[in-house]
Amino acid sequence: MYIKYQHRDHIPRRGHARLVRGAWQVQSLDLLLHVLVESRLPELLARPHGVLLQIVNAAGPGVWYVNSIESCVEQLANELVTISVKKHKLNRTHYGFDAVFELHDVIGDTGDGVMLDICKHSDGGCKQIQVLSDEMVGNFGEKYAKSNMIAAFTMAGIDPPEFPIQPGTYTIENFYFDLCELPEKAMYGTFTALAYIIRNSERIACSSTTVEFRDEEDEYCERD
């Protein structure tokens, strides 16, 4: 959870106060008392303008937003897949993606695994929080995003809509990423996931996806 605070600092010779905001991250309730005692809380409470405290959960139910899907900045020595993705608005509430994928070899056959390196944005950086992997990229796709994968492959003309995929250029237009397939509960914040396809310990493809999970009421997904 997070303890958010805000207070007003008096600015000498200007006759007014500036609003100061900050937050302490607390991993468990056991650490809450320690944070309150060891932090600047006693000093803040003594200020003439007072201090506003708000305890905010770090995880829970919410709504996902896909901010971007793009190629990785990292240059691969043997890149067998290149992608170009553009995000645009479909209507008042939904965004869509146009994409072009170029495959220079069969992708997703036996021996092509996947690794997802996930980091959370905070304090100007992105700290690694989780790494997911599977020895078969197809298994990974079906486990975490089966409906989206089938919809995208079908739109691209891949028949049947599954791995392996033959070499060629594939185009997708106005693809809506179904966010309801993502977990209903998660850690709040902004995350970037680097998705690698691995062949014989070598990275042959990479995409970067940035998503945000907000503490908002879900008005779109019908869940069991």
Defining traits:
224 residues; 2 domains; 3 helices; Ganglioside M2 Activator Protein, Chain: A; single chain; three-stranded antiparallel β-sheet; mainly beta; five-stranded antiparallel β-sheet; 14% helix
Helix content: 10-25%
Rg over CA atoms: 23 Å
- CATH homologous superfamily heading of the largest domain: Ganglioside GM2 activator
**Shape label:** globular
What would the CATH topology of the largest domain be?
Ganglioside M2 Activator Protein, Chain: A
What structural class do helix, strand and pairing data support? mainly beta
CATH architecture of the largest domain: Distorted Sandwich
Helix count, per DSSP? Answer: 3
Oligomeric state of this protein: single chain
Largest sheet: 5 strands, antiparallel
Q: Give the rounded overall mean pLDDT.
A: 81
How do the helices and strands follow one another from N- to C-terminus?
A: EEHHEEEEEEEHEEEE
User: How many distinct beta strands?
Assistant: 13
Provide the spatial order of strands within the biggest beta sheet.
Answer: 5-13-12-8-9
Level-1 CATH class name of the largest domain: Mainly Beta
Please indicate the count of domains. Answer: 2
% residues in beta strands = over 45%
Between the first and last Cα atoms, what is the distance in angstroms? Answer: 27 Å
Describe the 3D structure.
It is a single chain. The chain is mostly beta strands and 224 residues long. The chain folds into two domains: 2-56, no CATH class; 62-214, Ganglioside M2 Activator Protein, Chain: A (Distorted Sandwich), CATH 2.70.220. Helices cover 14% and strands 50% of the residues. The protein is built from three helices and 13 strands. The chain has helices at residues 32-38, 41-45, 137-155; strands at 2-11, 16-25, 51-56, 59-61, 63-71, 81-89, 95-103, 112-122, 125-134, 168-175, 185-187, 189-199, 202-214. The strands form four sheets. A five-stranded antiparallel sheet has the order 5-13-12-8-9. It has a three-stranded antiparallel sheet with strand order 2-1-3, with no helix packed on it. The protein has a three-stranded antiparallel sheet with strand order 6-7-10, with helices on one face. A hairpin with a 2-residue loop joins strand 8 and strand 9 (125-134). The two termini are 27 Å apart.
